[in-house]
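Sharing a chain and its predicted structure for anyone who wants a worked example. Both blocks are below, sequence first, tokens second.
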Amino acid sequence: MGGIFLKKKATFNYSRYGYYFVAPFIIIFVIFQLYPIVYTLNLSITDLTGWATEYKYVGLQNFIRLFQSKLFIQSLKNTVIIWGVNFIPQLGIALLLAAWFTDIRMKVKGQGIFKVLFYLPGIITAASIAVLFSSLFRFPDGVINNILVSAGILETPFEFFRSKTATRLLVSFIQFWMFYGSTMIMLIAAILGINPALYEAAMIDGASNKKIFFSITLPLIKPIMLYILVTSLIGGMQMFDIPFLITNRSGSGSPDNAITTVAIFIYNQAFTGGRNFNIASAASVILLGIIIIGSRILFRIFKEE
């Protein structure tokens, strides 16, 4: 009897308990992620607006209306422009700083202080940053205007938030300033994960810093580079807080809708005016499609390399 009992105990399957542990995650995912996505897809092909509770299906009419909307097309362009202008220098400068801090030949002193200072903007709330930059560039008595006028660079104060180009550049700079520190930290971690023996062998062979960077460092951190590109693409296409807060905080609105991003367009359609949930949902679906296609292209590019 004892042998039979031990045999049954030894073959007892505990794997089912794993489902109990993942069940909370699955429930949360279904309620807060999967269901909203499916519901949004459903609303995107309906005529639901205002406070109505009933709707009818209209096929692709909402998508056709969006692609005929100049404001939506401009919001797409604005999103791509603002993201591109902030991300390209963000990645470039973060990569240079990461290479600088990890270069064993340079042995930079006070690295910890520099890293904290560079990373600090990333932990400040968007609302605080919007207040800060709105005050700095305020017309006519903002700090920046006072400095520029006092230095003789400008004769009269400049209305930054009335200029299409200045507003876009300002928002792009804020996005860059907020996130280049975290990008730098990820790249530093990636570089430190490379086998030091590779660098030692390269230095023995007399390789220059430039040669080491492009032949060893850059190829080996491509997985992290891909992660940074994809997450930045996702975040950039959903850009909302800084443009929205700057627009409302400055009191000038968005000049010629220069910083109206797709996310702001969706918000305005859904929660202001006629509460066009159908149009907002269709725009969300288009945005999701752009993110998926863009991410897929990035994965393919890095896979081929």
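Comments welcome. The chain has two domains: 31-68+273-295, 73-261.
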